[in-house]
Amino acid sequence: MRAWTLLLGGLVVWTAHFLALYGVASIFPGTTIANWLVLPLTLVAVAALIFLLRRSVVQMASRDSLDRWMGRLATLGAAISLLAVVWQAIPALAR
Amino acid sequence: MKSETGFDPALFDRFPTKEERPPGEIEELERVWRAPRGWGLLTAVNNNYIGTFYVGAAFMFFVLAGFLALVMRVQLALPLQGVLPQETYNQFFTMHGTLMMFLFAVPMMEALGVLLLPQMLAARDLPFPRLSAYAFWAYFIGGTCFFMSLFFGLAPDGGWFMYPPLTSTTYSPGINADFWLLGIGFIEISAIAGAIEILVGVLKTRAPGMTLARMPIFAWAMLVFAAMILIAFPAVILATLLLELERALNWPFFDATRGGDPMLWQHLFWFFGHPEVYIIFLPAAGLVSMMVSALSRVTLVGYQLVVLALLATGFISFGVWAHHMFTTGMPTLSISFFSAASMAVSVPAGIQVFSWIATLAAGKPRHNTPTLFLVGGIVTFVIGGLTGVMVAMVPFDWQVHDTHFIVAHLHYVLIGGSVFPVFAGLYYWTPMMSRRPLSERLGKWVFWLMFAGMQITFLPMHLTGFMGMPRRVYTYLPGMGLEPTNMISTVGALTFGVGVALFIYDLARNFRFAVEGTAGNVYGGGTLEWLPNGLYAARSIPVVRSREPLWDDPNLGDDVEQGRYFLPGTPTGQRETIITSPIRAEPQYLQIMPGPSVWPLLGALFTAGFFLLLTIQAYTPAVISGILAIPSIMRWLWETDRPVAKQEVDVGGGIRLKTYATGPSTHGWWAMIMLLIVAFMVFLMLVFGFLFVFGVHPEYWIDFNASGPALPIAAVYTAGGALVLLGRHLLQREGSTLWSPTTQVLLGCLALAGAWILDFALWQDAGIDPEASAQGALIMAFLSLEGFLVGVAVLMGAYLALRTSRNMIERPRSVTFDVTMLFLVYTAAQGAASTLLTRLFPGGL
Ligand code: HEM
Ligand SMILES: [Cu+2]
Predict the structure, then answer these.
(1) Helices (H), B511-574
(2) Ligand 1 atom at shortest distance from the alpha carbon of B161
């Protein structure tokens, strides 16, 4: 279970962040409240991703080759999610 | 080396074994795995047979749907043509789209999964052979009847996404729409069955040593594919159920005049519909990755990045559904989120395309038919991807929405991203199951006709769209400048059709189904499906030490054939395969598999009968058929979960494995968890609908004062769940009598049923009227959903009791018991949650 959590963690954070943004935009349609809420949500997601990244980078130095491989995959996944999370938030924050 | 399960990986070094195998071992394997003959083939469950039937059926639907497309193109060749009247044209495009999406594309991928995965993973078969047989028959029978509706003028005509209010009884009074709703709803159930099979297969039946990092890319793709089906398909199943309820019982889920909302359909449909296109694309991309590497004779460039791309697509594609709704007036901010995600999702596709190009460039691809189809597919898909990024821009989409530009775009992606890869795959893998490969000479013609036909049809169609021709219109007026491009498109479509016809000719001439004595590894692939094969798959199951074992160990085929690896014979004398751990593929236990049986076929027949007879409003026969389905399915299960006399056997190299296991790391448990994920997703989507409808039309909601009984009812549900857990606890105790665990389960069932009846009766008391408003309809929908689960729970309880009465429940732990427990506990939890939600929201909060 821990292996899967780390492997997919980055992408899960992306999904959660996306759904949260969609949620606030639907609950407060057409208001600036939604735009403001995006900021803390994004910061939380970024923090979670950085936490995951630190874990996965450690795993990349493991002695076991499969652990290293999965660590690399997890790192890539979290890094790509980090980009995607920021990208996702731009439409709301740029206003 | 580390271990995942406590298995010592050093044991792998015992293979290949040196000593002679005892005589008669192969004969025994052949006897155990022999498939029935003649009419008995209908009862076959071997993946070679079911997989081939499945691919054949999917291909048949492709041809039928393609034929409809040609007729439509003939109608559109000239302005004011009279080939198809308006109503028939509507039926044709609906059936074409529906058949292509639901009866060709997704089933074709599942079919290839059933056919190829066990071979690629060197498993003897998929973990639930009878479930694949059931999935296939349900799909085949359901799909064929669905297609027949066309001949009676009863075919659905609301487009492949069936938007209400067009499809509500007001505008579609006939039973055409019901055919779609029940037919497709049913076929999706079979798709889910197949997905569970594939997920468990990939995670639990890989050859020992095939770690995640050594998995063939196709297996990765199928893993993501199947997981996406579990998450996405419940949305469409729920949507079709709700719309059918609205049509049959006048429950206004989508009726804005009574507090429902047609947009709910669009959300539910596209929450499924967009992932659907990736559900189609990912397996095809997996096939392409396998083939570019094999055909250019190098390992795939950027394997790990491709894995990441598959996983990322799996997630991100769930964040884009509303890009099909850019023109519906959603809040601007929401729209911009979906637009951003839509652009992001093209990145993983781009990664894969670059990996393919790099692989082709790094290796030495030859000029043969599969390679042509691969390159043609990549080119076509890239063009479609580019127009896709264009329509992801909201202002651009406002211009071209619902024009032929979209028709051109979607065909570029679908044909480039799935049809051409599938054809490449058919050429590449046919030698695995045919005595002769398909003809290279004809194949090149097939390719050029199809490729040219595709471009000639759809490239000019972009212009047709820019000039303003809407999609889904049966004709257009002369003098609007639409004639030239439409005529060209029709010529192209006919060319494409000639290509497909030539392919069928090639099949007829060269395809000769065989399990032994096949043409074999014509293109020199390096993965395990090219090991020497029989009905039992490979003679022995190799230890996998790399990603292309056949390239890296030239002796592998021979050693496997001589039985120098795992499971060279059949130690229990039954069908069996090795269950391995999900990450490192360490052997865990031996699974005993059921053999041929007519019950999955009958089960499929009766379930299909239930749904189809409902459509034509033959209610009594429908109910009879539905009732007959129950004993059929129970009967098929009855023969499973039978432990064998030997508790432990030698599976080769002196390694001993258990022959019976249950609990959280076993295949049965996993399958049940996946089924429960599906149930949970249906529930979650209903919760979404509930909140969504409330959000749009709160003025229609009334306070029923129903919050009082919420906690007591939830408590009864919880008690039911607790009793079931107690039963399992008792089963493990030496001292308990034969019946005491099962009795707890039956009491639990009683509690569940009681809670449900209480909930239902009290809502009636509160004066709920499902026809009056969407609120009432939704509450009834929650009750119906829970009622269905409780019904199944009671049946499972009865089945458990039946087995207990024959003393067929293993102790201290039994698969049947565990699986029943999981389902019942889930039912209790969902019951409690839905009572609390419907009774406390919004009034009681
Ligand atoms: C050369 C082969 C094909 C031709 C000539 C063709 C032609 C057409 C035509 C004429 C339409 C209706 C356009 C309209 O009036 O709106 C259409 C719609 C559609 N096609 Fe195809 N098609 C082909 C292959 C495919 C394939 C392989 C797929 C999917 C795998 C597919 C999926 C669809 C879908 C989803 C629609 C939309 C149906 C709707 O509007 O409800 N088509 N196609
Ligand atoms: Cu989409």
Answers:
(1) 549-552, 556-561
(2) 41
What's chain B's average pLDDT? 92
Beta strand segments in B101-239, E:
none
Note the pTM of the prediction, 2 decimals. Answer: 0.95
What backbone phi and psi angles, to 5 degrees, belong to B553?
-130, 95
Q: Which of B211, B228, B315 to mutate to test the interface with A (most CBs of A within 10 A)?
A: B315
Q: How many angstroms does the Cα of residue B156 sit away from the middle of ligand 2?
A: 23
Q: Which residue is it, tokens 């000479």?
A: B441
Burial of A59 (0-12, 13-18, 19+ CB in 10 A): buried
DSSP H or E segment with residue B744: helix B740-765
Q: Which of residues 13-52 of A touch B (CB under 8 A)?
A: 14-15, 18-19, 21-22, 25-27, 29-30, 34-35
pLDDT digit string, tens, across residues B299-314: 999 999 999 999 999 9
Q: Is B649 helix (H, G, I), strand (E, B) or coil?
A: strand
The interface predicted TM-score (ipTM) is 0.96
**Selection from B298, B283, B282, B303 nearest residue B214 by Cα:** B303
The count of residues in chain B is 845
The answer, yes or no, to whether residue B180 has pLDDT greater than 70, is yes
- Across-strand partners of B579? B589
Q: Is the pLDDT of residue B153 over 70?
A: yes
Question: What residue spans define the domains of chain A?
Answer: 2-93
Distance CA B289, CA B309 (A): 12
Closest-lying ligand 1 atom to the alpha carbon of residue B419: 27
Please name every residue paired with B649 in a beta bridge, in sequence order, or none if there are none. B657
> What local confidence, expressed as pLDDT, does residue B1 receive?
62
Averaged pLDDT in 10-residue chunks for chain A of 95 residues: 89 94 84 86 96 94 93 95 92 75
| CA gap B575, B51 in Å, rounded | 18
Q: Convert the pLDDT of each residue in B484-534 to its tens digit.
A: 999 999 999 999 999 999 999 999 999 999 888 888 899 989 999 999 888
Is the pLDDT at B790 greater than 90? The verdict is yes
Task: List, in order, residues 6 or more apart from A36 with CB less than 8 Å away.
Answer: none
**Rounded Cα distance, B200 and B114, in Å:** 12
- For the residues B253-260, what does the mean pLDDT come to? 92
- Determine whether the shortest distance from the Cβ of B72 to ligand 1 is under 6 A: yes
Specify the ligand 1 atom closest to the Cα of B280: 30
Burial of B594 (0-12, 13-18, 19+ CB in 10 A): buried
- Residue B327 above 90 pLDDT? no
To test the pocket of ligand 1, the residue of B98, B161, B407 to mutate (highest count of ligand atoms within 8 Å of its CB) is B407
Q: Which residue of A has its CA nearest to B316?
A: A15
**Residue B170 CB neighbours (<10 A):** 11
pLDDT tens per residue, range B91-110: 999 999 999 999 999 999 99
Distance B94 CA to ligand 1 centre (A): 9
Mutate to test the interface with A, among B337, B342, B343, B544 (most CBs of A within 10 A): B337
Residue-level pLDDT at B639: 84
DSSP letter at B122 equals T
Cα B211 versus chain centre, distance? 24
- Picking from B274, B275, B271, the residue whose alpha carbon sits closest to that of residue A19 is B271
